[in-house]
């Protein structure tokens, strides 16, 4: 899948460049494409320097939380809910702890770090699966919730914005929180419908209703604020949550007699190992996207969509963010490349860049997650996993666009 996508970028770029040369007489198009390849290779290294630090930092703090028992406490707190949503998973099964840890990593926006934890969780669920090739209900629910990307603190998005010179990297904190809530809710409801889960069970309602009421009240409060006040509140809450979470991990770790420095170093080493493997993928995708943009093919496609949107009488500012949304179901590295390219081309705090950042933080690489997670345990029949995951993805994209018009429009 990734092979075809990556090769397709270059083929489309080549066809577009030939058309511009032979039909349009643009003799400098190939020089621009070659220049773009080297520029994007340089940018990949610059992004990776900050990504090394970000993943190393947060996996270090996540290890403190794990040793302090915070993850175990979360697993116990969520146990009754998982018992209803995944009835085939016995209480206290190791899969519950791994699922919780995976959700914690996703919640912090550490999508690359969440993958190895998620693979362990999927293998644990496969141990309970009576079939070797057909996905179980528990595996489907776990995968769809994973693909819906419930991101409570998108630190990697903040990192990309900081690297591109954003004066306030956390500006998109609240838009991402609201958009990712849309995708997760739609993912949960779609799976519950297909699996006939009893969401009206008193225990499930005891978890869902307070969360829904709190989110509704929060959105009602936001509705009373101006766009300037919304942006300011997003910045304050983003930075406060970020630092507050660090202090929470450290204080609880210290109270539990955890050697916080040693635990941090242990987790940080794992973060370094995760990050160093990402550079080849980042170089490959950024260079492909750079060539696509330099050839004029990307602009040509976006212009076509923009004309359709104008014909419908809608605002067209979100169109330049669509490349991130369109490739996100297939490849996280391609979506990252599209996001970074949009920020460089349009400006890090431009409306398209803010929409692209919100999309990146509120949706997941559906087909990649399906291929990796199910492929790791030999699942061949995904049943309703694909449809539910794509529905959640669509909800995240539409939610991101709508929320950004609300906050920044």
From TrEMBL:
Span of domain Nucleoside transporter/FeoB GTPase Gate: 51-159, 276-379
InterPro entries per record: Gate_dom, SpmA_SpmB, SpmB
Source organism, top-level taxon: Bacteria
GO CC annotation: plasma membrane
Transmembrane feature ranges: 43-62, 140-160, 172-193, 205-230, 236-255, 278-298, 351-374, 386-408
Keywords from the named record: Membrane, Transmembrane, Transmembrane helix
Database matches in Pfam families: Gate
PANTHER family tied to this protein: INNER MEMBRANE PROTEIN YJIG
Protein name per its UniProtKB record: Nucleoside transporter/FeoB GTPase Gate domain-containing protein
